[in-house]
Recover the amino acids of this structure.
């Protein structure tokens, strides 16, 4: 009869299932994730896992939500403490690159975009939701750097957001195949060059 | 006793297995491909498929080889007929974007890079081989545009190749999630802006 404690224990179990699920997704992709494999992996029964996640898809969506939350906490929230304008924009870009290092097995959102881009359904919709939100937040940071007159007045925020996104994707790709250290040098330089090409003179 | 005809028929069968395998990979990823599923799908016995591909991995590698060959034929070879320098470089970039449209279910090389970036083995090695070659060919086209004095003398070909690669990855990502028509407008503009920022004045 201690509902708070029960809830808190339940939440902790839920979190540890998600944490393990993230590790599986990084190795095997979202299709490699099942209630059965996760149950075996955390030492629970399948029905125990089902008590937390009603379906495999619900668990897959929880992995996406967790990745998006980590990204917000590690990239956007610290960057928002930086001075608005170019400083904040570059902080977002740079923290994003470093975040990719912390994602040891690759970013779950990038994996999901590849795995579900041609499979209509809840996972694809969730990826689109987060990617749209990310692009909007990035565009907003760019618009602020236009307001501060650091970027040119004719800068189209959505266009530059697309271009920054490309640099981050190339960073993700190269760091996974050719090594982080070489990739981050190229990416930092690419971001700097890109922003410079939009800079007000 | 007609070895030539047999070989030609054998090659045709092999090609049709690969073609079907490419379709499966686009839908299910490389991990979704098995000798069993492909046999059922082309109406052959498993041992019939094994006569052409000694293992699942061999079949997966053949899919990568086929994708690389299509890319060479549809992007690089036509572009090489263009005038060397900036014209050729932009032709490569632009044909690359359009090639992504023809890859209805997404580019197998991008999928493989995501699926195998943390799994050591023959597939990962093959992806690295092709990605290294692609980056070298792109760098060579850039170096020519420096020789023709269209791009600045201090242009670092590998850096610009990385940046162009980022635009193509963003094109791949956006066209799959948000639609080809919007993505190609952004990508064409991104490529043009990028190259302009390296242009000799």
């Amino acid at each position: 009869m201690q509902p708070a404690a029960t809830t808190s224990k339940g939440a902790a179990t839920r979190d540890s299932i998600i944490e393990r699920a993230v590790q599986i997704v990084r190795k095997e992709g979202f299709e490699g994730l099942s209630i059965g494999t996760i149950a075996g992996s955390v030492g629970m029964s399948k029905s125990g896992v089902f008590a937390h996640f009603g379906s495999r898809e619900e668990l897959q969506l929880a992995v996406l939500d967790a990745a998006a939350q980590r990204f917000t906490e590690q990239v956007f929230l610290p960057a928002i403490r930086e001075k608005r304008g170019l400083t904040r924009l570059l902080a977002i870009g740079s923290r994003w690159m470093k975040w990719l290092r912390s994602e040891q097995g690759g970013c779950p959102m990038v994996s999901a975009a590849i795995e579900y881009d041609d499979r209509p359904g809840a996972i694809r919709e969730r990826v689109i939701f987060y990617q749209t939100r990310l692009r909007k937040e990035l565009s907003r940071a760019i618009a602020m750097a236009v307001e501060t007159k650091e970027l040119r007045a004719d800068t189209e925020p959505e266009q530059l957001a697309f271009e920054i996104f490309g640099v981050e994707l190339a960073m993700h790709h190269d760091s996974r195949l050719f090594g982080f250290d070489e990739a981050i040098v190229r990416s930092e330089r690419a971001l700097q060059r890109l922003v410079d090409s939009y800079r007000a003179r």
In short: Chain B touches chain A at residues 26-29, 31-32, 104-106, 110-111, 113-115, 117-119, 124, 127-128, 131, 158-159, 162-163, 165-171, 173-174, 176-178, 186-187, 189-190, 193-194, 196-197 (CB under 8 Å). Chain B has one domain: 3-197.
